[in-house]
Write the C-alpha cells for this entry.
Amino acid sequence: MEFYRSHVLVCGGTPCVLEGCKGVRDALIAEVKRRGLDREVKVVETGCLGPCDLGPVIVVYPEGTLYQKVRVSDVPEIVEQHLLKGRVVTRLVGEAPQAGVVKYEEPTYLGVQERIVLRNCGVIDPESIEEYIARDGYRALAKCLTEMKPADVIEAVKKSGLVGRGGAAFPTGLKWSFTANADADQKYILCNADEGEPGTFKDRLILEGDPHSILEGMAIAGYAVGANKGFIYVRGEYVLSIERLGKAIEQAKALGLLGSNIFGSGFSFDVEIRKGAGAYVCGEETGLIESIEGKRGEPRIKPPYPGTEGLYGKPTVVNNVETIANIPPILLNGPDWFRQFGTERCPGTKVFTLTGDITNKGLIEVPMGITLRRVIYEIGGGIPGGREFKMAQTGGTSGGCLPKELLDVPMDYFTLPEHGSALGSGALLIMDDSHCIVDIAECFMRFFEHESCGKCTPCREGTARLHEIVAKIARGEGKPGDLELLDELGSVMQVSSLCGLGQAAPVPIKTMLKYFRDEFEAHINDRLCPTGTCGI
Amino acid sequence: MAMVTIDGRKVEVDAGTTILNAAKKLGIDIPTLCHHPDLAVQAVCRICVVEIEGQKLLQPACAFPVQDGMVVYTNTPRVRQARKVNLELLLARHPQDCLQCVRNRSCELQALAERFGMREIRFEHKLRGLPEDHSTPAIVREPDKCILCRRCVSMCHDVQAAGVLFPSRRGADTVVTPVFGRGLDEVACALCGQCIHACPVGAITERDDTERVWQALADPNKHVVVQTAPATRVSIGEEMGLPPGQIITGKLVAALRRLGFDKVMDTDFTADLTIIEEGNEFLKRLKEGGVLPMITSCSPGWIKFGEHFYPDLLKHISTCKSPQQMFGALVKTYYARKAGIDPKDIFSVSLMPCTAKKYEADRPEMCDSGYKDVDVVLTSRELGRMLREAGIRFEDLPEEEHDDPMGISTGAAAIFGATGGVMEAALRTVYEVATGSELPKIDFEEVRGLKGIKEATVRVGDLDVRVAVAHGLGNAKKILDLLREGKANYHFIEIMCCPGGCVGGGGQPIPTTMEIRGIRGNALYEADRGLPYRKSHENPAIKQIYAEFLGEPLSEVSHHLLHTHYTPRQKYPSVAKTVCGEAAG
C-alpha cells in the first residue's frame, strides 16, 4: 500500500452524483496530476458522507475540512490553496453544523450521532475490498467461521437485542433460529434492499457506501442458519448500488471470501443480485419472495412464515440492509458492546434520512431512543426560513404524523407505536406550518392507492376510498360523517388487510385525524383551508 | 390434536385444521366469499376474519390454522365491523342490477349482503367500466361484476392447467383477465367453463342461447329435434329444485315435449355408436400397428386444450366425433331420410352439461350433413331457465320415453357422463368384439371414482390392454407430458376435460362441487345398472343403423359423417372467425 500526505474524499452517494460529484472527482484527479501532486495526494470516491443537500461534498484529510457545493470551477482553487499551500478555502466551508472541520478520529461534527451501520460510509472507497478489510472487514466472518459454532452466532445476535430495521422490528436472532431449526436440503438468506418508502434512501446509501458489509453480514447469517445461497433484492432504480454490489461480489469471490470453503472452514456461500421492477409491495418479505420466483409481486398468506417456508418453499431469512449491516460489528465486538448504544428495550442505533423543512437534510445515524427534538434541532439545525415546526412523519409514508407536543417522545420501535406512529424504515419528514394537513393526507393516500397490489379487499378498495374521501375534503366537497368513515375504514384496514401495506396505509391518516382533526373539520364545515393551500 | 375454544365452546380437531373447519364442527357457520371447498386457499376477501385472543390483527378463518389452546371469537364488534366494511367496499364496486343478473338468487355476494343486512353503502358507487368479453360462442365475461376473489384463477391454473385467467394491473385497477386484456378467443382457453363454477357472482357465465331455441320452437316450419346428453339426466333435477343425484330421464323427456320439441332423442344413442366406431378404431390401431396409445375424443374442451398445448400429439386422438356431433350429422341425414323431412327444415338442438360443446358445434368442420349439424347447444342451466319460464314443474310430470329411432341406448352410454365411463363402455365392447366371448364381469371398478388418474390392465385375448383415465385438464396434462416424453406405457387413454367428467361440466347446475360431481356420477352408474342393455354393441337401434345406413364400423359413410380431424392451434392464436362451411383459421 502506498502512503499519501493528503486524502481527498469525494462523496459518491447518489444525491452528490446528481449534483455532479463525478465531474468534480475527475477535475480533482486531473488538477492534482497537473500540479504534480499525484504521488502525494490521493483522490478517493467514497460512499455517502451525510449532508445530502449540500452536495457535491468533499472532505480533505488529514485536516478534515469539509467543502460543500463544490463545482468543477472551484477545483483549481482548492488544489492550489489547500493542497499546495495548506490554506482552507473558507468560502466553500459553509456555516451549517455539519460543515466546517471534520475530524475523522473524533467525529464531533456528527454531534449526537453514533456510527455503527455507517462506520465505513464516507470513509472508504466502496469499490475497494482492501479498504474494507483495512477497517476490520471480513474479520467478523473469519471469527464466526473459525471460532464459533452456528448456534453461538445466533446466541450472540439474540443477546445483542438487535431487531429488524426494515420496520417490523422482529428480533433478528429469533428469526434466524426459526430457519436454523428448520430441517431442509436448501435454505436461503435474502437481503431486502427494495427500499420503496418515499423519503427513505438509507439502504441505498449503505449499499453504495459499504457494500462489503452487506456481503459479510449475509455470509454470517448463512453460516448461522445453514444457508449457502443468498440473494440481494435491490430496487432496479438503484443503479449505483447494483454496480457496487456487483463489483463487491466479484472482489469477495476473487479473495475467497465468498464462494466455496470460505477460510477453509468447509462453509460455502454465494450471493446473487435480483433487481426489483418498481413495486412498493415487493418490499414486503413475501412479495419480495414471489418476485424473486418470477411471479406477480404480491404478498403470501402467513403462516407459513418465510423462516420455515420461504423462497421456493425453503426456509428463508429475510433481513433488511440496515439489519445486516449491524451484524459484522455485533459479532466482532460482542453483544454487550452493541447494547451500550440505544435503549434497554431497543439497543443499537437507527439510520434516518432527514428530509423536508429542515436546515440540514441528509443521512444520519443516531442512538435508538433519541428524541425528535434533538434530531431536528441538534443535528438538523432546526426549521429554516423562520417558520414553526408543524409535524414530523416518522417511518416514511406509512408512518404516523407527530405534532409538536410529541417532540420529546423517544424514537424507538416500541415507544412510537404507543402514539399511533411507527419508526418504520427510518424516514423522517419534517414539515413546517405552511403545509395543509389535508393536502398532505391526499398526497399520501394517492401513493397507497397507486401501490396497493390489489390482492385483498381492504387494501385494494380501502386505499382507493381513503384517497377518494380525502381528495373530496381537499376540494371542499367533504361532508359530515366523512371523518368518522375515514377512521372506521382505517381501523378495518389496519386489522384485516393481508399484509403490512394495507395494515400501515391508514396510519398517517389516523394520526392526522387524531392530532390535526380541527384542520379537517375546517375544510368540511367551513369550506376553509387554514393554510390556503387547498384553494377551496 | 388441538383443543380450541371458539365463542366460548371447546372443540378438539387435528392440529393445523383451519379455524373455519374447526368452527364448522361446532355448528358455527363463518361467512366466506373467496373460499371454495375444492380450490386453493385465497384468503383475499377478508370476510371470514375472526379475532384470536392475544393477536392484534384479525385473521382469515379460511386459512389460519388452529393451535392447541387457541381462543377464537367469531362475532365480536371488531369482527363484525371488519366484515361489514369489507363487504361494503366490495358492494360499492359491484353493479347493483341483481334483478337483471343471470346469477340472481344463486349469487354468493348477494347472499352475504342479505345475511349481513346491508341496507346502506357509504362509499360512492363506482364501477370500473371494463369491457365485456363476448368473443367466444361459449363463455361471457363481465369483469365489472368480478369481485377479485381469484377462485377462477385457481381453477384455471391449479385444476385445469390452462393458465388463461390471471390478475393483471394492480390496486383498484386490478382485473382478472386473459393476458393483455385479450378475448378468450385469442388465448389457449379450452372453454371448459369451470371458471363459471368457481365464480361466486355473475362475472363469468355461459352464452345464453335460449332465445334462439324459443324462436325455433315457435316456428311452424321448423322440425325441432333435441338430443339429451348422458350427464343431464342426473343434473337437470337440480335446476328444478331437486337434490343432486336424482335420475330424472323420463321426466326430462316429458318436460322437453311440453316445451314443444317435435322429437326428443338421446345423445346416449350416439354414445353407443361412438363406442362401436371408437372400439373398432382401437382394435384396428392395435392390429395394424397404428398410433398408440389412442385417446378418447368425446370431450371438446379436452380437444381444444390438446390442439393448443399438445399439437404434436393430435395423431393419438381417436378420429371419432363426439356423440353430440355424431348425432348432429345423423339427424339431418339418417333421421331426415327415415322421417321424410327435408334436412333444411330440421332444427337440431342439443342439451349438454358443457360450455365447450357450444364451440364444438360451431367448428367449421361440423357440417358434414351439408348443414350445420347442431344448430344450438343448450347447457343444463339454460334449459333450467326455459323450464322455469314455461312453468313446468317436475313433480307434475309423467315419465316418458325418448323417441325412435335415435332414442334407444344402453347403460354403457349412460356412464359416458362420469369419468372413466367411456373407457368402461369401450372395454365392455372391445373385449367381446375382440374375443367373441362374453365378459366375465361387466363392471370395471378400477376406472370409476374421483381419483385424478386411474389405471387398469385388462386381459383381452392374449393381450394385456393397459388403460388410463384422467379427468380435469391438470390431470390430463400429467399423462400427456408423460406421453410426450415417451413414458406413457398405455394402449388406451380416456381424457375428460372437467373434474368428475361431464357430470361436472361447465354447463351444469350451480353449485357444482367435487362432492356434487361424485353424487351425480354415482347416479349414472345406478342408471346403468337399471337398464336392459348395458353394452353398446347389444343396442338394437345401433344394429339397425348399421344395417340400414352405415354399413359397417369405419365404413365410408361412417368416415364421412362420424369421424373428424383436428387443428393444431397456437397458445396465442390470431382470431379467424369461421362459420359453417368455411375453412378453419
